[in-house]
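Hey team,

Filing this mostly as a record. A colleague (T.K.) asked me to run one chain through the structure pipeline before their review meeting, and I want the input and output archived in the tracker in case anyone asks later how it was produced. No errors, nothing strange. Just documentation.

Input sequence:
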Amino acid sequence: MPKLALALAATLWLITAVVPALAQEDPAKADAAATPPPPAVETKSLLDLYKQGGFLMHPILLCSIGTIAIGVYCFLQINLKKMRPSEQVDELTQMMRRHDPTSAYELCRRQPNAFANTVSSALLKVNFDRDLSNKISMEQAAAETLAEEETRSMTWVNYLNVFATIAPMIGLLGTVTGMIQSFDQLAAGRSEPQDLAGGIGQAMLTTAGGLIVGIPAMFLYFLFRNRLMVIITEIQKSVTFLIDVLSGELKLEGAVEETPEELTAASESEETPA
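Output structure:
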């Protein structure tokens, strides 16, 4: 009996000491269980962002395609090897040393490029009967043709500048339309964050899209414009060198010293049968 009484007393003590403590912890656990977890951040793909940007993302996409296409074209066409091949310069130099404008002109017509077109226009003005083989007229013709070639190439480079200007402007237009959409929601009495998120998201996405296209387009514009200026300068120097050699103002080692009349007589003697 004493043992039973001690057991009952211990049980009552545990109930009075532990149960209230457990009862105090239960509300906190219940509150924690009742509190909903924070919503997970939704990940969006590029296509989702493109759709969220609205209809103005379509012209921005067209600007990006145009920038890539023209950038590739300028990379392939505007380079020194394409516009002034070193092999062609060497061949024309040898022909100018021999005072053979006919063969030089035929070579330029077979292998057209900016350099060859400039040289061929100058060769059309060759006249050995005039002072320095009519050098002044040759230089004028070459300068006019070279200016045309520069303008033709610069036209494509300028399209990069067009895209670099238009794309951010379209993005700015998207910013304005997005903010107008958000203010319309406020005017209708819908001021919850989710009500304004659509217009603000459109504003930010179109602005970002325009800048993403405009910045590389502007970089490519300055890159190819400066490259073209350097190439045109090299072509001008090479053409001037060839004209000086042909006119006789610049003498190279091994250059032909015979006059044009002697060259004509020598060619006629070769054509006469023995």
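Quick notes for T.K.: Residues 254-274 have pLDDT under 50 and may be disordered. The longest helix spans residues 193-247.
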